[in-house]
Amino acid sequence: MKVGKELFVAAGPRLVETLAHDGFDVFLDLKFHDIPNTVIGACKAATRLGVWMLNVHALGGRAMLEAARAALENGSSSPPKLIAVTLLTSLTARDLPEVGIAGTTESAAVRLARLARECGLDGVVCSAHEATLLKRECGADFCLVTPGMRLAESAGDDQRRVMTPGAAIAAGADYLVIGRPITRSPDPRRVLAAINAEVAAALAAPRGVRREG
User: Fold this and answer.
1) Per residue in 67-100, is it b (16+ CB within 10 Å) or e — as a string?
2) pLDDT of 20-45, one tens digit each?
3) Model's pTM, two decimal places?
4) CA angle, corner 192, sides to 28 and 169, nearest 5?
5) Are 80 and 88 in contact (CB under 8 A)?
6) Catalytic-labelled residue, pool 2, 31, 81, 135
């Protein structure tokens, strides 16, 4: 269960505690990006909520990433997974110069993912379009969480680098973040069933076979 900014601001930390208590693996998607001391406090607070995974922004830099890792290791005998956001999937190569990032989205994602791995993080949030490259560069055990999942029939909305669930799994994604295709559908159950069927087919396919779902 992913709890993002909108839900967290509306319902607060008590909801996160309740979900964790009820047996859900909670991915707290608040994308911490601040000075190391502030991120340390935020990561420790998230650990106390019992979350399974949380994230920070890789653009926060080495000191912040290492501080976040240390905060989790010092705060729990069974710390949550810690992943870093590389580039938001709403960004394209055209946007990068405006925010001071050189190169392509792929080269920037690789640099940030390597930094996250060097700092001891478990993985990154990335576009599924970069998953195959990042698995090759950072290793099969490096966790890739991919938002921007859309069925072939879905609109892309403000997401730009999107992919179908089946194609994302074939590319190397470990966890898929799927929200609006379900929540904004007039028939969420039908869409969820279609996603589950596509995911099952992708997982059953021979390795290296790319399915477009």
Assistant:
1) bbbebbeebeeebbbbbbbbbbbebebeebeeee
2) 999 999 999 999 999 999 999 999 99
3) 0.87
4) 70
5) no
6) 31
